[in-house]
Design goal:
Shape: elongated
Structural class: mainly beta
Distance between the termini: 31 Å
């Protein structure tokens, strides 16, 4: 996504089994990068999985991260614990907001589906 006037881009990055969770957690690391530092960068990420009927359902609470007066933000706190080895299809949606002066610029991005033997 492009967010003027600071030329910011939000990339969702792929959902994967997290090494930091000994490959027993699933998550991703969305990142916003800007050419010029906005006043603030905020990101909120929600993880989803598909149930048996193919309907996407939210898993857990949204994960949030923020930074002030910085060129970038990489969200590293997204991790859902695997509680079984059922093959599960995952994805996430991240909403990013940058604040420049008194204006907010917002967008949302989603990841492609990721299939792993990691159920909840």
């Amino acid at each position: 996504m492009g967010l003027d006037p600071t030329n910011c881009v939000l990339k969702p990055n792929w959902v994967h089994l997290r090494k930091s969770g000994s490959y027993q957690t699933v998550g991703n690391k969305p990142a916003t990068t800007c050419q010029f530092a906005p006043n603030s960068i905020y990101q909120t990420t929600q993880m989803y999985k598909y149930n048996t009927f193919g309907i996407a359902i939210k898993v857990g609470s949204p994960f949030t991260a923020s930074v002030k007066n910085a060129y970038s933000l990489e969200q590293k706190n997204i991790a859902i614990n695997c509680t079984n080895t059922k093959e599960t299809r995952w994805f996430s949606i991240t909403t990013g907001i940058i604040i420049v002066g008194a204006k907010n610029y917002e967008t949302s991005v989603g990841t492609p589906d990721f299939v792993a033997n990691c159920g909840t």
